[in-house]
Amino acid sequence: MDKKYYNKTQKLIDEIVGYVCVNNKKNTMITDLYKIGYPRKLVYECISFYKDEIIKALEYKKIDKEYPMLCYVFAIIKSKIKDFSSSEKSTKTNKTISEERVSNIFEDTQDTNEVKTNTPINRRRSIKDRLKGVN
43 near 79, Cβ under 8 Å? Predict the structure, then answer.
């Protein structure tokens, strides 16, 4: 399963560059992302998500040689992957949090509907009220 995402990532990098890279640095740069702690599936999804943006950045830079092009591509990926991974985690947690909030809000509204008391509002006392002795 992990090998599948590794191969897909290699092919995706080749698509971004525009041809099949024969430079071994491509493989080491991909494995460096895995060594940092990002799962293979997340790396693949991040690269595929930002593929068009990376291609536009490469066209703007007009890098001719393969190694500097790979370095630039992976610099973009490294800067984007942290945001991408945090957004992936937040969307997963937001779904569970929103379900919990809905149930908590529903329970809270039931509790407030049952018990309503007229409690006085504690307001700040001004100097004038303090001198008069008003509570």
Answer: no
Q: What is the pTM of this model?
A: 0.62
C-alpha torsion sign, points 90, 55, 9, 77: negative
Mean pLDDT, rounded, for 62-83: 89
Q: What's the CA gap between 89 and 92, in Å, rounded?
A: 5
pLDDT of 128: 77
Evaluated on CA atoms 29, 35, 37, 43, the torsion sign reads positive
Give the whole-angstrom CA distance, residue 114 versus residue 122: 23
Burial 61-73 (b: 16+ CB within 10 A, else e): eebeeeeebbeeb
Report the pLDDT value the prediction gives residue 11, as an integer from 0 to 100.
92
